[in-house]
Amino acid sequence: MNSRRISLLLVMIMIASLVSGCQGSEVEEAAVENFTAVEVQAAELGDIENSVVINGRVAASQEVSVIPKAMGTVASLNVELGDQVQEGDTLFVIEQTDMNLSVSQAANGVDIARKSVAQAENGLNTARINYELNKDKIENAQLNLERTRQLYEEGAVSKSQLEQAELSASQLNLDALQAQVNQAQISYQQAQDQLQQAQISYQQAQSGLSNTVVLSPMTGIVSALNVKEGQIAASGQPAATIVNMDTVYIRVNVVENVVNRLSEGQEVEISVPAAFEGYIDSVIDYVSPSADPMSKLYEVRAYVDNNQYGIRSGMTGSVKLNLESEKDVIVIPSDAVIDKDEKQVVYVLEEDVALEREVQTGLDTGEMIHILSGINEGEEIIVEGQQYVSDGVTVKVVRGE
Question: Residue 123 is part of which domain span?
Answer without folding.
Answer: 98-210
